[in-house]
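Slide 14.
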Amino acid sequence: MLDTLRSLFLPVEQKPDPARRVALAAVPVGILGTGASLFVPNVSHSGLADMGATAAADNDGFISFPDKNEKFKALFRLERDLRDEGITLSTYQFITYAVVQGQRPQPIVRWEGMEFSYFRRVSRLTWRIHAHNVSYPRDLYTGNFTSRVMNPFIKTMIDIEPMKLLDDPGVLHGPMGYLPLDSKTVNWLDTYHVLRNEGSLIKSEHIRPTPDGWPAMFIESSCSTVSRRDFFDSKVTALPFQTSGFYVFPFPAWMRMGDQPGHMIGAWSGRRAVNGPRDLPKTFRERVERENPELLQPRWRELDQPLSAVMRQAIADLKAG
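Slide 15: predicted structure.
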């Protein structure tokens, strides 16, 4: 999410969004429990039955599902894991660009980070998810860690610090959508999600919901890719994927843009860290080990925090339904 890249870059007065937890995800490490059956989706075109073969171009097309439950299982399996309890870890890099009205957009800084999420099933097809996120700034040209970058629009070096999201309130995620755990009412946030077959690959396109009260100039979208062989292998409950995407957000305070009209764009690429923390990039992992080694472990205590009466009722309604 993990959770979220987007919440890290909003102006400081804006509230982090727990729905982003689904954004980037990773492989389970030491997962407990079973109990979720996998699916084989219905498809709207021929040729997917031969799961191990290289697909021909005429097999390309959209994948359809019999109902929203099966479609959600496809998404959650790709971005999380269908087991009762688990953790996911992802690693990513992205560049943020500043877009000022009437001027050429300019790259500002590269970031390298990880998102670590941990989740538990609360009803048949709904999970409670919590996460934390760490991102370090890197120089655009050398790739070295940095604490100062040039803002070409104000022609000034600006200070920039590592970003750590450690207080995300969490979210429920299921076929109904996303429900942030700090919501005062039960208002599930819907999402746009499409799966496509493209040659020997399955591509998942996901536009995440934006909660009420967020800036109008905001959107986040991603495209994750897995092999057809893995996607149709029922033994794989969490899919190893590559992902890329973008998001648009207002100028953060550290850009020192004042009232200047414009916005930022972040463009990322990342992957599931299949073997847990040891799969993180070496220099990034070593820095986390020096500065915050506890963040290389899941924070299960977050899932032991009591839920509000609103969330308890939402879960009760899911179980009753």
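Speaker note: Residues 5-320 form one domain.
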